[in-house]
UniProtKB/TrEMBL annotation, chains A, B:
<dbReference type="InterPro" id="IPR038369">
    <property type="entry name" value="SpoVAD_sf"/>
</dbReference>
<dbReference type="InterPro" id="IPR016039">
    <property type="entry name" value="Thiolase-like"/>
</dbReference>
<dbReference type="InterPro" id="IPR010894">
    <property type="entry name" value="SpoVAD"/>
</dbReference>
<dbReference type="GO" id="GO:0016746">
    <property type="term" value="F:acyltransferase activity"/>
</dbReference>
<dbReference type="Pfam" id="PF07451">
    <property type="entry name" value="SpoVAD"/>
</dbReference>
<protein>
    <submittedName>
        <fullName>Stage V sporulation protein AD</fullName>
    </submittedName>
</protein>
Length: 340, 340
């Protein structure tokens, strides 16, 4: 299964048999409302805290995906889940509700593809009949933990990004119809010494470029082998930096080919600074939008490169720079043509 | 590879080809100093913060294991690492130093066996030639984050546990000599409504019993099929509760057969209340002590059941009870007889 130095090729081509995506009101007013199966007009979803609200988002994303796949929680052997909050509180509490055997993952905003890659491996090696991988974020829970209380009204520079209130789940299985996960590249930590937590996109761009270049080498492919290469949340600052870095490595990725989930989720009229971010961003955009676009546009193969900034509020306070990572997954059409 | 409902059987019997364990001064003065390859007399190990010190522990555990296996970081495709701190700060920063492609895991004190189980799957399915799984904790970093600053001098009840300052790493590969990982059972979240963070052992005992009983069912085995069954850190309160719960489920585990890493690490004269805890506890005791005991005692097969309390300071403040989990791995001798 290992191909090259840090990649996996799944010859059995595990299937994403269903997905579930849940968003908040700001996402409903965004550029991709159709990407969400469930949209809430209340960021609290009736809960007493943002953290408990995010837990509900995770539960709903998983339940929605299972319902679409006509599965119960009993049919799914394992749940791979992660988020940005301390001790993965929303993921762990959702695992309590769902009662699916649970493995917690942390890759910051790269968690979505870390989960998809490990989940596809489990299905490939018949360690599971069905696995669900889910990643989530909640704007207000993240602000509260990483930045300032929203009520404080702290100003942000234009390089900042807006953490999405979203959860995205994918159910993987060994056969049937649906998009196929055919490969993955696991990133290593890249830290170019940037330390500004209000410019995550710039900090993460070298990690994205590193993983993408490694992916091409490991699979002996070029950008032309893909219909779309999309990063997780590099935003307006990070995406052009990643493009330049890849150019330096000899890979030309033009604007049609190379995009970013963080630049797709919201409208230009929404005040999201340099774009969207959060584990829920790449998960919801990939599972709720890109998989449908593959069918609509006739795309054969895309590469989703989820990008994560592995800082903590404490590491920032201790004057550390930001270690970043990117994990990539290859998704191919099975030629069937159907919406999730 | 899936066996029963939530277990894996690795028919290729991945090998633990080397381990590395690092401890602090309190561990050096404990009951198992010989379990550690490296013992520091300074909990800061020359660093400016406890978090940075813990990062050094992770790095040293991995480097020690690699050195013993005559491997470089380039020979290891993936590092599976986790700890208790927010955003896995020590694991992520160690991954930056080590430059091994990195997947972050969170299972609180169950992280050690979550990593060993996923790592063994990677080797089994030839997704890696070598994988390193590492789990760590630092007493003072944990106190600061989860409880009170040590300087505050807060008193603890006798049900509290002492987070170990320790890191344990295991390098897995497909062939050669060494103990074999032959199976695993991934836990589900069990929460019996306990909410006292100073009685983690009591809270985690039902999760341990759930995973152990599920393990016996999935593998169609009984306690007699093991030379030792050891939990991660149930301590003096949790272990007898787990024993009682297993008795109710029809499994008699007597005192010789059923132990706890948290009751092995320190001396009775050390003021650790109900015992040791932390992801580094089960990792160091398993990799540094139990694997050697297998050879010394002629044990054929042991079951290590790492136990985790998935609470966060925030979930406690929000009056939530403690969701708990336990992940188990089966380790068997290859009959060779050698020390790690």
């Amino acid at each position: 299964m290992l191909i090259g130095k840090q990649s996996w090729q799944y010859t059995s081509r595990p299937v994403i048999c269903a997905t579930g995506t849940v968003g908040g009101p700001f996402e409903a007013a965004g550029a991709l409302p159709q990407a969400f199966d469930v949209l809430h007009d209340d960021i609290w979803v009736g809960q007493e805290s943002f953290e408990k609200a995010q837990t509900v988002f995770v539960e709903e994303a998983v339940k929605t995906a299972l319902k679409k796949a006509s599965l119960t929680t009993d049919d799914v052997q394992f749940m791979l889940a992660g988020d940005l909050l301390n001790q993965l509180t929303p993921s762990s509490f959702a695992a309590r509700t769902l009662q699916i055997p649970y493995m917690g993952l942390f890759g910051a905003c790269a968690t979505s593809m870390e989960g998809l890659a490990i989940g596809a491996m489990m299905v490939h090696t018949q360690a599971a009949e069905h696995v669900v991988a889910v990643a989530s974020s909640h704007h207000s829970a993240t602000e509260k933990q990483f930045r300032y209380p929203t009520e404080y009204g702290g100003q942000k520079p234009p390089t900042a990004q807006w953490t999405a209130t979203a959860a995205g789940a994918a159910v993987l299985t060994g056969s049937g119809q649906g998009p196929r996960v055919t490969g993955a590249t696991i990133g290593r930590v890249v830290d170019m010494g940037m330390s500004d937590p209000f410019n995550m996109g710039g900090a993460m761009a070298p990690a994205a470029a590193d993983t993408i270049a490694r992916h091409f080498t490991d699979f002996n492919r070029t950008p032309e082998d893909y219909d779309l290469i999309v990063t997780g949340d590099l935003g307006q600052i990070g995406l052009p930096v990643a493009r330049d870095l890849l150019k330096q490595k000899g890979y030309m990725l033009d604007h049609d080919l190379f995009g970013d989930c963080g630049l797709m989720l919201y409208k230009a009229s929404q005040s999201v600074f340099a774009g969207a971010s959060g584990p829920g961003c790449s998960a919801a955009v990939t599972y709720g939008h890109l998989l449908n676009e593959m069918t609509k546009q006739g795309w054969q193969r895309i590469l989703v490169v989820a990008t994560g900034a592995l800082l903590s509020p404490l590491s920032y306070q201790q004057k550390e720079s930001i270690p970043c990572i990117a994990h990539a997954a290859v998704i191919e059409t099975d030629g069937g043509g159907h919406h999730l």
